[in-house]
Design a protein that fits this description.
The complex is a heterodimer.
Chain A: H1 2-32, H2 39-57, H3 61-84, H4 92-114, E1 129-132, E2 135-138, H5 139-161, H6 163-173, H7 175-180, H8 185-210, H9 218-232, H10 237-257, H11 263-277
Antiparallel strand pairs in A: 1-2
Helix pairs in contact in A: 1-5, 1-8, 1-9, 1-10, 2-3, 2-4, 2-8, 2-9, 3-8, 5-6, 5-8, 6-8, 9-10, 9-11
Chain B: H1 9-17, H2 25-39, H3 44-69, H4 78-95, H5 99-121, H6 126-146, E1 156-157, H7 166-193, H8 195-205, H9 207-212, H10 217-243, E2 245-246, H11 248-251, H12 254-267, H13 273-291, H14 300-314, H15 318-337
Antiparallel strand pairs in B: 1-2
Helix pairs in contact in B: 2-7, 3-7, 3-10, 3-12, 3-13, 4-5, 4-6, 4-10, 5-10, 7-8, 7-10, 8-10, 12-13, 12-14, 12-15
Classes of the chains: A mainly alpha, B mainly alpha.
Chain lengths: ~290, ~350
């Protein structure tokens, strides 16, 4: 019984962190109708930057996560402006290809700078754990879960309450209508890409805190984000959060009760299944924040 | 700049006599040269280099069938290469089959698998298909790395399938790749002229219109995917014997998927010559990058990614597209002069 509770709890905690990169992906996908395959490698860049800040300057990864927001927002603007926008009116496969090219380049730049070794961030609190109703609660997982909740619901509030948030939702729902209503949809696409990438940077720090990482792990990250996005409904932020929790719990139970080795197989298989059955998402999509 | 040299009349007569072979003349000359090349006993390094280029001709050209002519970009071409490699390894371990015998069953297994997963995935729109193929290559890799009969994590040793001396062995692999490259290029040349090829291009350009004129989209797409995977699987079977060892991380490396795509796209998709030119130039570039002083910093994939981005942004039809538009610019001038 305790074991079941423990499995559930750790599943929920890592599931919250899965939602973090997924909401960024979901936002970009919802607004621009493109699948940002570079999302995982951008997150991974966040992990490595936080690692360097921590190792070289002793900056706590949590502070680094905050620093990542403006940096990755800017990176997102640059990527969108120089790579995605020029092909946005071409068949959608062009944007996927260009982002795939960017992914290859960035992965190998990361390998050049940080080598291909497995890395882990180990701040002082990384080994600590709390006792919660008889279950073991890792401090770092609890913190990253909190970080994910703040980021996801921060985005949710941004979309619901601010002008740019409303413009983003309008563009996601119907670009032509949004344009007719006087929204600069090009600018909205740019900003949405920036916000999505900023969230990827934060997600990278969170993922880097709880898992060890290496230059090609981003494929797994982007596939998981893709899965969470589709499960939650494209553009649906709260849906992505719920789907992240679901995936985390499913993974946790599978890893504990079946076999740790088959977890990835299950993730990829589930992705394939979802793609085949309902590529438009399980929940209602279209940025219904 | 260059003057048009008139053909000597005896050549013209010869060409008339072999009217049917005329469009393939250049290919036949190339094939002959490639058959003669290893018999001249070149240094092993060069033979192996040309063999590797031929392997990538098979991979890029077979990618071209699904990614170019059918318009379904695959990020997981390695899946079929890897399946072929495993089939060859299993056939060798259980029955001692050499690569030239294992190629056909390996190709068929890959094609069958393509049919199986193509049936649902080829109904998806392009980007979803691309991601599905990427996920698939990872699924198959994880499965084969964990199943007991595929040697789990240890892989399978495939040594001694061909009891030759070192030179003869290199030659044998060379000819295996040459035969596969010939088959693949031949199949695409046939495709260009066949109803099948026209149907595929019709689907790619506008699926709804193609459907309305009676093209059976899903059947043609499945056939193209199976054909593409068939060649990739055969290439994998030969590679398994050449590498002498098969393990899931080795034969399902994303590297193969990237190279198949990049070589075909840079050369120019939906053309016969594009993937061939792409494979030759890019593989030479690859060798240059990895064997020169630059090799220590492994910038090959960075260069590939940058080239892919440049092609998508500036020359979507690749080297072939650029050459074609150059010749279009030149042609009016030539007729004006003549």
């Amino acid at each position: 019984m305790t074991n079941v509770f423990q499995t559930l709890l750790s599943g929920l905690l890592s599931g919250g962190v899965y939602a973090l990169p997924a909401v960024g992906l979901s936002l970009i996908w919802g607004v621009m109708k493109i699948v940002n395959i570079a999302h995982g490698v951008l997150a991974l860049l966040g992990s490595y930057l936080a690692l360097t800040l921590f190792r070289a300057l002793g900056i706590d990864p949590l502070l680094a996560a905050v620093l990542m927001l403006p940096v990755f927002f800017l990176i997102g603007l640059i990527v969108q402006h120089t790579l995605v926008r020029p092909v946005i009116n071409q068949p959608e496969i062009s944007s996927l290809m260009i982002l795939f090219a960017f992914t290859i380049v960035l992965e190998n730049v990361i390998t050049r700078v940080w080598t291909g070794d497995f890395r882990a961030m180990t701040p002082a609190y990384s080994g600590m754990s709390l006792d919660f109703a008889g279950a073991n609660l890792s401090v770092v997982r609890t913190i990253t879960f909190g970080l994910a909740v703040v980021a996801v619901f921060g985005l949710d509030a941004l979309l619901a309450r601010t002008y740019i948030g409303k413009a983003i939702r309008a563009t996601a729902q119907n670009q032509t209508a949004a344009m007719l209503a006087g929204i600069d949809t090009d600018r909205v696409a740019l900003i949405a890409f920036g916000i999505g990438t900023a969230l990827a940077g934060v997600a990278g720090v969170a993922l880097g805190l709880i898992y060890s990482f290496h230059p090609s792990v981003h494929i797994l990250w982007v596939v998981k984000s893709f899965l969470v996005t589709v499960l939650g409904g494209v553009g649906n932020i709260r849906g992505a959060f719920a789907a992240g929790l679901l995936l985390g719990v499913a993974e946790s139970f599978l890893g504990t009760y079946v076999s740790f080795r088959w977890v990835d197989f299950f993730i990829y298989g589930l992705l394939l299944l979802v793609l085949l059955v309902r590529p438009q998402g399980l929940l209602r999509g279209a940025a219904s924040a | 700049m260059s003057k048009t040299v008139p053909l000597p009349s005896q050549w013209e007569r010869l060409a008339e006599g072999t009217q049917r072979l005329r469009p393939f003349g250049a290919w036949l000359v190339l094939l002959t040269l490639l058959i003669v090349f290893p018999l001249l006993q070149p240094p092993l390094f060069y033979m192996r280099l040309v063999g590797t280029i031929l392997l990538f001709v098979v991979l890029a050209q077979s990618w071209n069938i699904i990614g170019g002519y059918t318009g379904y970009i695959s990020f997981g071409h390695v899946t079929f290469f890897g399946i072929g490699a495993y089939v060859a390894a299993l056939l060798f371990r259980s029955a001692g089959w050499p690569p030239y015998a294992a190629a056909l069953p390996a190709g068929l297994a890959a094609a069958l698998f393509a049919l199986l997963i193509g049936f649902p995935t080829l109904r998806l729109r392009g980007p979803y298909f691309a991601i599905a193929t990427l996920a698939l290559s990872l699924i198959v890799q994880v499965a084969l790395a964990n199943l007991p009969f595929t040697g789990s994590g240890e892989g399978i040793v495939v040594r001694g399938g061909m009891p030759f001396t070192r030179v003869a062995l290199e030659q044998a692999f060379y000819f295996c790749y040459l035969a596969l490259a010939g088959l693949t290029v031949g199949a695409v040349i046939w495709m260009e002229r066949s109803k099948f090829g026209y149907g595929l291009r019709a689907i790619r350009d506008d699926q709804d219109v193609a459907l309305s004129v009676g093209v059976s989209a899903i059947r043609l797409k499945l056939a193209a995917f199976a054909l593409s995977s068939f060649f990739a699987g055969m290439a994998g079977s030969v590679y398994a014997h050449q590498a002498a060892y098969v393990s899931a991380p080795d034969v399902f490396t994303l590297d193969i998927s990237i190279k198949s795509l990049v070589y075909a796209v840079v050369g120019g998709t939906s053309t016969v010559l594009g993937p061939v030119i792409g494979s030759v130039l890019m593989e030479l570039l690859n060798i240059g990058l990895t064997t020169s002083a630059l090799g220590q910093i492994r910038i090959d994939h960075i260069v590939f990614g940058v080239l892919l981005a440049i092609v998508v942004l500036a020359a979507p039809r690749g080297i072939m597209g650029a050459l074609q538009s150059l010749s279009h610019i030149r042609r009016p001038r030539r007729t004006g002069r003549g």
